[in-house]
Amino acid sequence: MCQVEAITHVAHTLTQIETLSLYNHANVSLLTVFPPNLLRLSMNNPKLDHHVWGKCRFPLSLQELDLEINAFHQRHPIDLVFQPLTVLTRLQKLAIRKVLLVEPKTCFPDLQLWPHLNSLCLRVATVKLVHQVLAAVPTTQLHKLHIEIEEDDPRRLGMFEGLEDADWGNLKTLEMDFVDF
Question: Can you give the chain as a three-state secondary structure string?
């Protein structure tokens, strides 16, 4: 595990690093340039600033991203959070923890650009948003799915309503609220 400050100005020179765990306990700026051959990245940050986040240039080689933002009650539009990630065509695992994803500010992100995505972990505000995410990612490629839905209306639609005919044959691990079962 490495503090952000330790590699802030040298990250682009760390060409041999394939796995990196970063934490930022102080309120230091988010790293925006990463080692160029990185395959796995785990980041722990106290907040998500969209002006800085939008400037992040993740290496195209990135296959696994585990992002934990310790701002549990903040709401973030899904399009702004996914904006720097949509170019990651080799992405296999995406976990965005503690960040509450809400409706997009502009348009829903194109998730078809992640043909290798097989593990997804998200915390979303509504079932409608979950339906949009699951409709955008081919269900045949998902092996692990962890979805937390904040909407607490007991009469709300289930997470899989309307997706009963989808092919869930490759799904090995499913983590969700019992209401959605």
Answer: CEEHHHHCCCHHHCCCCCEEEEECCCCCCCCCECCCCCCEEEEEECCCCHHHHCCCECCCCCCEEEEEECCCCCEEEHHHHHHHHCCCCCCCEEEEEEEEEECCCCCCCCHHHCCCCCEEEEEECCHHHHHHHHHHCCHHHCCEEEEEECCCCCCCCCCCCCCCCCCCCCCCEEECCHHHC
